[in-house]
Structure prediction request, 164 residues.
Amino acid sequence: MTPQTVAIASDHAGFRLKEAVKPLVSSLGFTVSDLGPADETSVDYPDFAAPVARGVARGDYDRGILVCGSGVGMTIVANRFPGVRAALCLDEETARLSRLHNDANVLVLAGRMTSPEKAAVIVRTWFATPFEGGRHQRRLEKIKFLETGIDNPCKEVTKPHVPS
Prediction:
């Protein structure tokens, strides 16, 4: 069985945390593709988020990890690509739920707010947690349809769920 490939990238603010996370991901049995940058020189986060997200969307990579200062910019860019479900995770619980309920395929970390130790817990949890499926699959199907940009004629799929 071929090891899963994880693409990883950052901007300058996330560079140090990216470098700390890479060996951990490798130690978990994944092949890591570092898409940059090579140092802490100031760069624009969309230039590094897009290749990771595009690669995950196309199936070139099984999952991705992105790191910027707050994590917000990388999340915004990654979620522009159909099939990408990028989740900014600041703690173990959001990492767990992003996989369990949302089947997140791109993990986003905040380099200025996350220590390497905390990132290790988040990364381990994120990779160890499977997608639960069930009622959550229905929600992912709705997201997939929204990505097409076409109105859905199937009312039972697009009708919002209103609790009784």
About this structure: The helical segments are 15-27, 46-58, 72-78, 92-100, 116-128, 135-148, 155-158. Residues 133-164 form one domain. Residues 135-148 form the longest helix (14 residues). Strands lie at 5-10, 31-34, 63-68, 86-88, 106-110.
